[in-house]
């Protein structure tokens, strides 16, 4: 039976649960249907998590209580049957409170739109459970990272690298532009804290990097522009 998006949204909004057939349909949906799935997944995320975001490796978060979680590594190419079984198993496991998703790059790269459908499937299978996206988001989702931000409620910030010290500021800008608030950030200036952190690691121009990244316009970078290559089939 073909996946019917309208029937599915009506069922979930009425309090129904996604079935294995629903999740398989989400994973195998067309690129054209992906944006509607992302929008509905974002709706469910807001319903249970509002505009809060947990950053697992935020400065000073070492002593925060961590929910029971499971790591799922997504290999390419995706096997929709196996992944559906994994997702449904996690959704029905009352002991698992959070799923961390990491996209593993192999010989066949993950396509950004495909990765969005994976995140939508995890969110819609268990809207009440925490969904964390790991650091593979940058290389996998590329210019579509902002869309993923509306489906997840937890993320891992970029780790320090001397080659790309500005990555943490790119993350903070991504968070700011998504309109979400990092848990534990009330009263804090995260940009200034990370400038000081980078300076302590020997990055003398940390303040300049922060200024450059935070104040850079997003114009021309949204949607399927840039690295997504929709016109060449790269968003399948």
Q: Give me the side-by-side strand order of the main sheet.
A: 2-3-4-5-1-6
What count of domains describes the coordinates?
A: 2
| Count of separate DSSP helical elements | 10
- Quaternary structure classification: single chain
Spatial extent as radius of gyration: 18 Å
Protein name: Biotin and thiamin synthesis-associated domain-containing protein
Domain Biotin and thiamin synthesis-associated: 112-180
Keywords: 4Fe-4S, Iron, Iron-sulfur, Metal-binding
Cofactor: [4Fe-4S] cluster
Description:
Keywords: 4Fe-4S, Iron, Iron-sulfur, Metal-binding. The protein has 10 helices and 6 strands. With 236 residues, the protein is α/β, with parallel strands linked by helices. It has 2 domains: 1-59 and 67-136 and 151-156, no CATH class; 157-217, no CATH class. A 6-stranded parallel beta sheet has the order 2-3-4-5-1-6, covered by helices on one side. Helix 5 (112-125) links the parallel strand 3 and strand 4 (130-133). The model is unreliable at 219-235 (pLDDT under 50).
Salient structural properties:
236 residues; alpha/beta; 6-stranded parallel sheet; 10 helices; 6 strands; disordered C terminus; 4Fe-4S; BATS_dom; Biotin and thiamin synthesis-associated domain-containing protein; iron-sulfur; metal-binding
């Amino acid at each position: 039976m073909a996946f019917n998006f309208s029937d599915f949204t009506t069922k979930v909004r009425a309090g129904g649960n996604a079935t294995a057939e629903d999740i398989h349909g989400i994973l195998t949906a067309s690129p054209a249907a992906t944006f509607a799935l992302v929008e509905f997944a974002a709706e469910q995320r807001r319903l249970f998590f509002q505009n809060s975001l947990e950053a697992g490796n935020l400065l000073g978060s070492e002593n925060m209580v961590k929910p029971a979680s499971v790591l799922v590594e997504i290999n390419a190419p995706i096997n929709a049957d196996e992944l559906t079984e994994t997702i449904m198993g996690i959704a029905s496991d009352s002991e698992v409170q959070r799923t961390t998703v990491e996209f593993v790059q192999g010989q066949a790269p993950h396509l950004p739109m495909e990765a969005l459908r994976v995140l939508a499937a995890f969110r819609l299978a268990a809207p009440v459970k925490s969904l964390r996206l790991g650091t593979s988001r940058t290389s996998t989702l590329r210019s579509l990272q902002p869309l993923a931000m509306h489906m997840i409620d937890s993320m891992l910030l970029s780790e320090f690298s001397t080659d790309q010290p500005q990555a943490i500021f790119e993350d903070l800008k991504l968070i700011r532009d998504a309109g979400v608030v990092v848990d534990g950030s009330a009263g804090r200036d995260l940009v200034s804290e990370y400038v000081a952190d980078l300076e302590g690691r020997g990055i003398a121009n940390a303040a300049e990097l922060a200024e450059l990244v935070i104040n850079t316009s997003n114009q021309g970078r949204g949607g399927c522009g840039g690295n997504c290559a929709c016109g060449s089939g790269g968003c399948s």
